[in-house]
TrEMBL record:
Function, as annotated: Serine hydrolase involved in the detoxification of formaldehyde.
Taxonomic classification: Eukaryota, Viridiplantae, Streptophyta, Embryophyta, Tracheophyta
PANTHER family for this protein: S-FORMYLGLUTATHIONE HYDROLASE
EC number, UniProt record: 3.1.2.12
Protein name, entry field: S-formylglutathione hydrolase
Coiled-coil ranges from the UniProt annotation: none
Protein's cellular compartments: Cytoplasm
InterPro entries in alphabetical order: AB_hydrolase_fold (IPR029058), Esterase-like (IPR000801), S-formylglutathione_hydrol (IPR014186)
Family stated for the protein in its record: Belongs to the esterase D family.
Residues annotated as signal peptide: none
Catalytic activity entry: S-formylglutathione + H2O = formate + glutathione + H(+)
Record's keyword terms, sorted: Cytoplasm, Hydrolase, Serine esterase
Length: 284
């Protein structure tokens, strides 16, 4: 099985290219796809900083590339966008496709500890395997200069991965993140099945809980949240995260956007602000 990525599609956009790749992931035990948006290069030797996007429940690597419009500003800022898939696929684990908020399409960017879901190791895939794969196969990428952002479940993933790896990422932002999953139905369902009953294990993948353990976060955390989002009050809980940031003296900018919902229409509206936020950090 080929672990080296092979290109499966390419489309030109804003002078650069959206390219989709497939490879076998030893971490997950299955074939995976991911997208890279390459901005136009000023010279053959130029190296680009990278910005990882983590998508939400039921999404694939395609949603962000097709719907966000992020490529326009990524092209002018000279930043590569990396969009991985959201879970292992094709493993045929019993019950993996029974619900949209757990299993296939719902990896929650953690390392499962329960035997049945042992291949659900999206944390290691995003933090370890994918950056190494990119570094070894794409010499135009400066993978040591990286930032991360995401939406909903992917916003949860971006926040937790950033807080657990402050040495690996220059900045973080999120749209409508699942900010306190140990206290919401989506998180409780996923964590019970993937991690077992121990609440201490759950806290390792909860951004609000992690905030009490971090030190020296200097870059402002940017969060956009629509106040018309139907999931705001029972699933997302951004105010809990904001309170934890204030207690830890971590700079956070939580912007409640009037009338916006949970969709990519919302993401596309404010995506430019997020790309600029990361561009400033990546070019320090």
């Amino acid at each position: 099985m080929e672990s080296k990525p092979s290109e499966i599609s390419s489309s030109k956009m804003f002078g650069g290219y959206n390219k989709r790749y497939k490879h076998f992931s030893p971490t997950l035990g299955c074939s995976m796809t991911f997208y890279i948006y390459f901005p136009p290069s000023p010279s053959p030797s130029h190296k680009f900083p990278v910005l990882y996007w983590l998508s939400g429940l039921s999404c694939t690597d395609e949603n962000f590339i097709a719907k966000s419009g992020a490529q326009r500003v990524a092209s002018t800022e000279g930043i590569v966008l990396i969009a991985p898939d959201t879970s292992p696929r094709g493993l045929n684990v019993e019950g993996e496709a029974d619900s949209w908020d757990f299993g296939v399409g719902a990896g929650f960017y953690l390392n499962a500890t329960q035997e049945k879901w042992k291949n659900w190791r999206m944390y290691d895939y995003v933090v370890k395997e994918l950056p190494k794969l990119l570094s070894e196969n794409f010499p135009q990428l400066e993978t040591s200069k990286a930032s991360i952002f995401g939406h909903s479940m992917g916003g949860h993933g971006a926040l937790t991965i950033y807080l657990k790896n402050l040495d690996k990422y220059k900045s973080v932002s999120a749209f409508s993140p699942v900010a306190n999953p140990i206290n919401c139905p989506w998180g409780q369902k996923a964590f019970t099945n993937y991690l077992g009953p121990s609440k201490a294990d759950w806290e390792e993948y909860d951004a609000t809980s992690l905030m009490s353990k971090v030190r020296d976060v200097s870059a402002t955390i940017l969060i956009d949240q629509g106040d018309g989002d139907k999931f705001l009050h029972d699933q997302l809980l951004p105010n809990k995260f904001e309170e934890a940031c204030r207690s830890a003296n971590v700079p956070v900018l939580l912007r409640l956007q009037p009338g916006y919902d949970h969709s990519y229409f919302f993401i596309a509206t404010f995506i430019d602000d997020h790309i600029h936020h990361h561009a400033r950090a990546l070019k320090l």
